[in-house]
Amino acid sequence: MPTSLFDLTGSVALVTGSSRGIGRTIAHALASAGATIVLHGQDEQRLAGTRADFEREFGADTVHSVAFDITDAAAVVTGVSWVESAVGPIGVLVNNAGIQHREALVDLAVEDWDRVLRTNLTSAFLAGREVAKVMIPRGRGKIINIASVQADLARSTIAPYTAAKGGLRNLTRAMTAEWAAHNIQVNAIAPGYIHTEMTQNLVEDESFNAWIIGRTPARRWGTTADLAGPAVWLASGGSDFVNGQVIFIDGGMTVVV
Ligand code: NDP
Asked: pLDDT tens digit string along 147-172?
């Protein structure tokens, strides 16, 4: 039984795209708070490596993994159902898996538009829908959608990502409209620029790096660790009356011009 507001003991948390990057750090934070973790990704070898690291730290009983393509509706149904039967009732879903694609909008192929929308937005609908089906009868649950400052701010060459993250913001509200009455809290975390594999090329780009530092009131890139506390809060009983919010974790980027 949980002994404090932020204790996740006894809760099963599925974090999509947790084989690396932000998802991995969020999964680590939830495991550190006591949750049983289900790691997820597409690349089985990378996932197995992350699982081995987690097992060494938290023990094999509380660490599980499942690989499937988050854009494949049938695979999501099978994956969620496997977690429910093999691991236990899902208490926390973090919709984190995502990709980026940089190209001018006039040159963008519809296949690339679709791929980014499917991975960053449709995925949250698919996983959220399956998990809500089992959370609703239980009358409790936490869903955290990982958005971005691009939920609010556009930037050239990333139109599909911007559209997907803006959509994820309103999907968070739509899920709230339908599921809050069942004691399911759905919220989004909108990270600013975080140093991960996805952004490694931007960190190495001298002029972009200087622009980020100047544009961010906190004068630095975010780290994945900056997202740990907010994720634990939104996964825990400490946020039981927080519904449909987008929490910007961006060093102040979205509140200044
Ligand atoms: P990474 O590229 O480091 O990791 C992406 C994760 O998503 C991996 O685990 C990857 O699995 C998984 N994934 C991607 N596509 C699929 C798929 N089709 N099926 C299953 N799993 C998939 O990304 P980040 O950690 O940087 O980003 C994570 C989330 O945070 C994304 O939603 C991103 O938009 C968001 N974000 C990131 C920011 C940043 O600055 N980095 C800022 C704001 C938001 P595999 O290893 O198997 O490919």
From this structure: 999 999 999 999 999 999 999 999 99
Topology given in CATH for the domain delimited by 12-194+223-248: Rossmann fold (3.40.50)
**Catalytic (active-site) positions:** 161
Single-letter code of the amino acid located at 200? Q
Measure 55 CA to ligand 1 centroid, in angstroms: 22
Tens digits of residue pLDDT in 105-143 = 999 999 999 999 999 999 999 999 999 999 999 999 999
Residue 197 has what pLDDT?
Answer: 87
Strand duo 246-249 + 184-191: pairing: parallel
Candidates 256, 251, 252; CA nearest to 222 is: 251
Give pLDDT tens digits for 28-41.
Answer: 999 999 999 999 99
Ligand 1 pocket, Cβ-based, cut-off 6 angstroms = 17, 19-23, 41-43, 46, 69-71, 96-99, 119-120, 146, 148, 191, 193-194, 196-199
The token pair at 244 is 């449909």
**Cα 247 to ligand 1 centroid, rounded to whole Å:** 18
